[in-house]
Amino acid sequence: MKRPLLIRLAHGSITKAETTAIVVSHFRGIPPGGAEAAVDRVLRGAISRFIENGILKGDLGEFFPIPALAGELSAQVAVVMGLGDYDVFTKKMREKKENDPDLLRKIMRRLVEGMLQLNIPSFSTILFGAGGGGLDAEEASYDFLRSLAEALTTLDPSRRIHEVTLAEADGTKLPAIKRGFERAGEEPSASFLLELRELRLPPVEMRPPEAKKVMYMTVRSEEDVLKYSILTDRPVEVMVKHQYSPQAVRELSEAILQYGDRAWLEGLNQKGEDVRERLMRDGRDLRVALIPREIMDHVRNMSKDFNLILSLDQPLAYIPWELIYDDELERFLCQLPLGRQVREEYSSFRRGYGDAKDDEIDMLIVANPTGDLPEAEEEGRRLKELIEQSLTKIKVDLWERSQVQEGLTKSRDLISRLNTGRYEILHYSGHAFFDEVEPKRSGWIVDIETREKIEAFRFENTPRPPVLVFDNACESGRFQKPDQRNTEIAYGLAEGFIKAGVNLYLGTTWEVDDRAASVFAEILYRRMIADGKDLGEAMALARNEVLNRFGFAEPTWASYVLYGTPSFRF
């Protein structure tokens, strides 16, 4: 006779689940995010303190109960399950083999053991790996239920644990989670009789910690001398002169920028060279050539507490600073929360970040206006669903070709919508072009046949330009000849939009892969909306996710460049 098992699938915040215990997960060495961060806030920072004190390590299978004596949890205890190292967990989960003991089965056995030791008959948990792990929700829920049933059958023959609630704040994942549960329950070999009920919990309360403060690394150039300074709100006054070889830096920059050339990457692979090692080598050499040791020490020491803004003279803007590699940090600079400012003609920012009307943020998504990029169109639809079902106050309009007002061209229709001043966020996914003679005339192509386009300078006269423009275009920074690389970053769409009054511009340095670009966008918005992350931190997490999924052979993760502060948040 099969064992009855009641699974409650709950949409909302796990902090609101009325149960004996709630379970969240923790990756070793990574600050709390998602559900873990939400529980940490309700527990008044208890999880963070245990991590900082080295008591909670996040080792694989670690079962760490915290009595809910403080805060506003309905549960009596919060349990943090260690998932080990993020990259190892996600890689092994994706590469698991049938009939082999996998990570999830080990974690579930330890979870059930711990609950039985604490005499807890019911608990609420999150879906391990489907949030920060970035795993497919259907497969994750399928594996979750099979692993849970196996652990209960082996460790709990007296059936003391009879009910489990799975809480998911992201409504877009619920259909896939349900499918995964139903698949597992319908298998002939299933050892349990599944009863699945759905309920709704109160939404996640967005009370994130204050945005990180900003550290400015200012770099001024005078022939073969660079003048560095570090500026923060702390009494730090660091000014260092550094003699360098402009020619050597230019050659290193050219070598690194080849990473965006897929033909070059293919040639490298055919030679048997390791792309990762080659990029790390060139990035390391660029760091040594460019950044004095004293300045780099400050970046290392302060990167945990501060977001970094590179304030650059315009002649230095062509350098791929984001791909400087540091051995002590064990990462590229772009894997830190990072933004740029280029000293030239800045716009007079015509509004601040916080004056959205009626506490709402209006967002316009323009996806595949030319009609020949189905992946971009799907990206737009997924983002709209993600945001609308994430229980936020962001109102999303998805512009579609069929919505063009009668008598207007596509470009006129889009400009007309932006002239209303409604939109704080503009997300574009489609074709772009670069004007090497007049960079501010670079822009977006909205019709392939007629070559109809929207140039960046046309935003200059809009009464309220968007605060944030995310240009996820397939060619927004693409260069054609080596001598264009010098001006490609400083004068392209970024310059045009910033001069038009856009506070934040996120674009690409080279052509991106449609699939990888969609993953980047989805993770970026998910981290900012569901987790309350700063833009810079969300970018770093999105880069790492693209890198984990596609590897170094796909350069999309390194293509993104932010102009503006990485401390922006919704």
Strand order within the widest sheet?
3-4-2-5-6-1-7
The CATH topology assignment of the largest domain is: Rossmann fold
User: What is the alpha-carbon Rg in Å?
Assistant: 25 Å
Q: Please give the domain count.
A: 3
CATH C-level name of the largest domain: Alpha Beta
The percent range for strand residues is 15-25%
Distance N to C terminus: 52 Å
What level of helicity do the residues show?
Answer: 25-40%
| CATH architecture field of the largest domain | 3-Layer(aba) Sandwich
Mean pLDDT: 84
Q: What about the largest sheet?
A: 7 strands, mixed
The dominant shape is globular
User: How many DSSP H or I helices?
Assistant: 16
How does the helix and strand content classify structurally?
alpha/beta
Which parts are unreliable, with pLDDT below 50 for 5 consecutive residues or more? 97-101, 345-357, 476-487
Q: Can you count the beta strands?
A: 23
Describe the structure in your own words.
By secondary structure, the protein is α/β, with parallel strands linked by helices. It has three domains: 3-200, Leucine Aminopeptidase, subunit E, domain 1 (3-Layer(aba) Sandwich); 213-343, 2-Layer Sandwich (Nucleotidyltransferase, domain 5), CATH 3.30.420; 357-563, 3-Layer(aba) Sandwich (Rossmann fold), CATH 3.40.50. 33% of the residues lie in helices and 23% in strands. The protein is built from 16 helices and 23 strands. It has helices at residues 34-42, 46-52, 86-94, 103-117, 137-155, 174-186, 246-257, 262-270, 275-290, 293-302, 374-388, 410-418, 485-488, 493-499, 514-530, 535-550; strands spanning 3-11, 21-26, 63-67, 77-82, 122-125, 163-168, 192-200, 213-222, 225-231, 238-243, 306-313, 325-326, 331-332, 338-343, 361-367, 394-399, 425-429, 431-433, 443-447, 452-455, 468-471, 504-508, 560-563. The strands form five sheets. The protein has a seven-stranded mixed sheet with strand order 3-4-2-5-6-1-7, with helices on both faces. Strands 16-15-17-21-22-23 form a six-stranded mixed sheet, with helices on both faces. Strand 12 (325-326) and strand 13 (331-332) form a beta hairpin. The longest helix is centred in the N-terminal third of the chain and has 19 residues, at 137-155. Mean pLDDT is 84; it is low at 97-101, 345-357 and 476-487.
